[in-house]
Amino acid sequence: MQLTRRTLNRTALHRQLLLRRSDLSPLEAISRLVAVQGQEVNAPYLGLWSRLSGFALDDLSDLLYGGQVVRGSLLRATQHLTAAEDYVWVRPLLQARFSRSSQSAFAAVTKGVDRDELATLARRHLTGRTLTRPQLRGLLAERWPTADSMALGWLAQALLPVVHIPPNGIWGRGGATPFTLAEEWIGRPLEAEPAPERLVERYLAGFGPAGVKDVQMWSGLTRLREVVERMPLRRYTDEDGRVLYDLPDAELVDGDTPAPVRLLPSFDNLVLAYDDRTRLMADEHRRQVCVGSVTNPVILVDGFVAGMWWLTKAGLRIQPFGPLPDEVMAEAERLLEFAGQKGAAIEIGSQIRP
């Protein structure tokens, strides 16, 4: 069965809670999304606001302080927020990726550093306590004074499952990054050998139908083709003939289903979930949205990217890719109110509206 681009678009929006704001709790929504990109501190709040009815800033802050949600390096070795009960199996699946990438990144500046010894020493320093990265790297530099201390800190973070604890991850809070051992903060050990099929299944539930390259792009894992092909999944093709996989009983959404305007934050889950992003945006728009390591905030109109936006101290700035409907302005005003900037100016291109 061939799926049209609009069917893939509407199905993705449905599974991402973007066809209508959901009544799910924030914890349920984060679990639905597997992990929420948290490279920028405020982005998860804006992403959940776009997906949930009645969402307030304290809803997520309380989960972080309570430990039900944790913030740490996960998918693609970047910062994510995930349910604590998911972190304990997702992070072990990704550990080999962390180890490989850290070896290639830091080998030249950590010559003579035994990685196993570093991990053991870092664990000893973190056991029963919380340290900032500068504090940890200072302690490690006592053992390896000639190595690059910055690299020692990053290497320890790659080799050990650690989470950043509040106030890190709280709306509007920056500064030092405190972290501690994940199993101590969560209160349970990480799973020893989780199955990759589990991650594929959760991905498809939140983002499918999708191809193998899509799963790999989203997760940062490689060599998943054999894993995917041995699973009892339903197969489709897209308009370009690519094979797509989905859960056998997962719902597809008609391409003519109305899609509301949405303002998605930097590095949003939906934008980073696919190798082939044509179900979401035209290639010429992708080149403007995804620039190097940056993924800009986007405006969805009729389900597709129609512009970019940025929240500033003065208000909200919009860069359209073409004409925008009035609903974009209404949604922008709602976002400003959520962010505590009700009534702030909205700039569209060179035009500013109070």
TrEMBL record:
<protein>
    <recommendedName>
        <fullName>Winged helix DNA-binding domain-containing protein</fullName>
    </recommendedName>
</protein>
<dbReference type="Pfam" id="PF06224">
    <property type="entry name" value="AlkZ-like"/>
</dbReference>
<dbReference type="InterPro" id="IPR009351">
    <property type="entry name" value="AlkZ-like"/>
</dbReference>
